[in-house]
């Protein structure tokens, strides 16, 4: 029993250190490791085509996926964005190879390490090469792009994510049924785009 209590206490201390709480300093941009299991997480959005000739797929860990529209994401949320080079044939873009992986991590007071005027809540950022090794990145640019999104917890595609998720739930709820309201049909159409 005593060994179990010691093990449980050690786990709590390690979790506190990992969270950057009172047991350790908040991490800075580029200091955290790339999550190894993110492809098993819920998809935030996929196939986002950019005019720069890239396609983006975004994943969110289960902590973040539990958020509700209108709320901030909980501490412990991790969002991973894969950026693929793309080829274009006519109007269709096709992935041509993973170029970079960018990660946003949220923890209690983690944003405190950002330079003044560049704080994006409790988020810190990291960039990785396709092989998982840290990549050089200008984190001021990352922060600058996310700064205007304070009302969306600094997350791009916040509304689209929640609307798409809601429409998927509506489709699941209407499986086998014929009738659907106009609003439900509109939201369901977001899933099929």
Tally of separate helices = 5
Q: Output the radius of gyration.
A: 19 Å
Which structural class is indicated by helix and strand composition?
Answer: alpha+beta
Low-confidence stretches: 1-23, 174-193
How many strands, which pairing sense, and closed or not: the largest β-sheet?
5 strands, antiparallel
Name the strands of the widest sheet in spatial order.
1-2-3-4-5
Helix-strand blueprint:
Elements lengths: L1 H17 L24 E8 L3 E7 L1 H4 L12 E12 L2 E15 L16 E6 L10 H8 L11 H16 L8 H11 L1
Antiparallel strand pairs: 1-2, 2-3, 3-4, 4-5
Helix pairs in contact: 4-5
Explain the overall architecture:
With 193 residues, this protein is of the alpha+beta class. It contains five helices and five strands; from the N terminus they run αββαβββααα. It has helices at residues 2-18, 62-65, 139-146, 158-173, 182-192, and strands at residues 43-50, 54-60, 78-89, 92-106, 123-128. Strands 1-2-3-4-5 form a five-stranded antiparallel sheet. A hairpin with a 3-residue loop joins β1 and β2 (54-60). α4 packs across α5. It is globular, with a radius of gyration of 19 Å. 22% of the residues are buried. Residues 1-23 and 174-193 have low confidence and may be disordered.
């Amino acid at each position: 029993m005593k060994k179990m209590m010691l093990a449980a206490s050690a786990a709590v201390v390690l979790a506190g250190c990992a969270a950057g709480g009172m047991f350790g300093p908040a991490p800075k941009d580029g200091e955290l490791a790339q999550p190894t299991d993110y492809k098993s997480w819920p998809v935030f959005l996929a196939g986002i085509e950019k005019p720069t000739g890239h396609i983006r797929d975004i994943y969110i860990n289960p902590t973040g996926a539990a958020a509700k529209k209108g709320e901030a994401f909980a501490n412990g949320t991790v969002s991973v964005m894969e950026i693929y080079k793309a080829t274009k044939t006519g109007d269709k873009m096709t992935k041509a190879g993973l170029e970079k992986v960018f990660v946003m991590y949220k923890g209690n007071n983690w944003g405190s390490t950002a330079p003044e005027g560049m704080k994006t809540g409790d988020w810190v950022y990291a960039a990785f090469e396709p092989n998982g090794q840290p990549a050089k990145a200008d984190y001021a640019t990352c922060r600058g792009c996310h700064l205007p999104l304070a009302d969306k917890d600094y997350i791009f595609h916040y509304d689209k994510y929640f609307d798409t998720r809601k429409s998927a739930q509506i489709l699941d709820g209407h499986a086998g049924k014929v009738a659907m309201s106009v609003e439900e049909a509109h939201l369901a159409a977001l899933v099929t785009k």
